[in-house]
Design goal:
The complex is a heterodimer.
Chain A: H1 2-6, E1 9-14, H2 17-29, E2 35-38, H3 46-49, H4 57-83, H5 96-122, E3 146-151, H6 159-167, E4 173-177
Antiparallel strand pairs in A: 1-3, 1-4, 2-3
Helix pairs in contact in A: 4-5
Chain B: H1 2-12, H2 23-35, H3 41-67, H4 81-106, H5 116-136, H6 163-196, H7 200-209, H8 217-250, H9 262-288, H10 297-327, H11 331-342, H12 346-358, H13 366-369, H14 372-399, H15 414-437, H16 443-455
Helix pairs in contact in B: 2-16, 3-15, 4-5, 4-8, 4-9, 4-14, 5-6, 5-15, 6-7, 6-8, 8-9, 9-10, 9-14, 11-12, 12-14
Classes of the chains: A alpha+beta, B mainly alpha.
Chain lengths: 179, 459
Amino acid sequence: MTERERSWGLLAGFGSVAELHAAIVALRAAGYRHMDAYTPLPVEGLAEALGQKRSWVPLITLCGALAGGIFGFWIQWWTAVVDFPINVGGRPFNSWPAFLLVTFEMAVLVGACTAFAAMLALNRLPRLHHPLFGVGEFDLASRNRFYLAIEASDPLFDPVRTRQLLQQQAPLSLREVPP
Amino acid sequence: MNGDAETDRPLARPPLLKPGQTYATATDQIAAIVLSRKTSKGWWLCFGLSSVLALGYLLGAPIIFSYGPGLFGINIPVAWGFPIVNTVWWIGIGHAGTLISAILLLLNQKWRNSINRFAEAMTIFAVIIAGTWPILHLGRPWFFYWLIPYPSTMGVWPQFRSALVWDFFAISTYMIVSIIFWYMGMVPDLGSLRDRARKRWQQVAYGLLALGWRGSVRHWQNYESAYLLLAGFAAPLVVSVHSVISLDFAISIEVGYHSTIFPPYFVAGALYSGFCMVLTILVPMRKVFGLEPYITLRHLDNAARLLLAAGLFVAHGYISEFFTEWYSGSTFERTLGWSRITGPYAFAWWITMFCNVLVVQLFWFKRVRRSPWTLWVLSLVINLGMWMERYVIVMTGPARSYTSGRWDVVWATLFDLATLIGSIGFFFMLMLLFVRFLPAISIFEVRELVREQKEEGAP
């Protein structure tokens, strides 16, 4: 318990995607679950290797876009039919074909805002600080190094044994992450 | 067919990046432009020049707000004049940015990765400038917010059957979605800048803008999903926004405006002028900032091909419009068509045809497409041509309206010219600030190109 308080986890840096992928597979096989990889570019396949579930962003965005579209149509219908009907040469109040454009624009607008907000919320961003930023070399994660972090919250985490396990993957660097 | 293209690529096409790029070189070189490179004399010269030009717009606009739109060369019946010509021109310029960033992303066209960021910035600045023109053109500009449906004490609502309200929704949605798309695309790169920054203010500024991005696999997973969805939202905007603008014309019953060809014709024109502006900015930018390894001749070639395609669409639009004017048998339409070629605004029509139909034929030649400064000069010519095209559309119709008693001609005033030239200066001023302070090339997407090039076995 005291060990866990002393560190946030361990951070191993690799020089290539392939090495990182091998390390993830090995650590998963050893039973570790509380871990994440940090890469300078999106890499397909890593999320599956880490056992991450599919992103919720599309579903949330769909709901946002539908809500925007429904609201967009409703405000036009309500103002034109209920609250402020204007009779122009006997044309129907609910002239829905003329309302489709604003409906579409509202669906796009709210959908796009939702997609962005959902991405941030699901990634727990914005965030001013994170323990990983306490590791000096972590700035290479946005350049050319591929990191794997095992978090101390993992039930199997043990400062010595986990370190040995990571060492076997021959990382370029292996650092303890201060809390 | 797709499979063939994939296998052919390494043999048939030159690489997208200059060989020898690695994750590290790409990151360091692009970040250095913003973080550590000394601001060049060329940048200061361009910035000074465009700032001076921008004064025409930045000082002209408040004067027009105080004295009213009568300062523009407009009158009844030729009531739209320069402000609407400029709206259409500027918003058209924005469209190429969205096409490059959204549609080419969905079509998996990897070459867009080095030019999408600045094209998006171009879109945003152009749309913001475009949005100010209709407001400048309002008689009572302080009431423009009446277009927003809000529960007011007056108890009235916008007329949603009006093309002007659609216009407001289309432009503001386009602007907001473009800004989100642009900013979100930059978040990982702002993280890269934060990590490279050595000066305190840079660390704080880019640190805040990066929102705490760490590039974890979970981050990337949600990010890529959201980015694709945003591209999906932006893609229909490429065709819808300018269509809606054209409906401002087409829904009216003015001669020369009331035409069903307008939506596709306007969209093609938008892409045409947009790709022109892409080249106008791209060619000097890659030179000044030494970006040739990332923006290669192949990028210029591809942009020029798209430009040619859009140009042929536009030429087709001109022919169809003329044919319809003749074939309709309407005296009014025929009079208008004849007046375009020979009437008071004929000079603009001939410039349009020369720039947009004749000059663009040079793009059939590979040598032209691959010589940057030729492209640059030609792009300026076509930018002018596209402005003239909108001038012809906006001015000639009302000038030759249904009864000859209403015929009138108006000419530009000092304020028309000052604000137009000023808006161009303002646009370049914003672009220069952008390339100086934000990553003008998407760093993480160039890393993806590096990875791909490695896997294809390029040296």
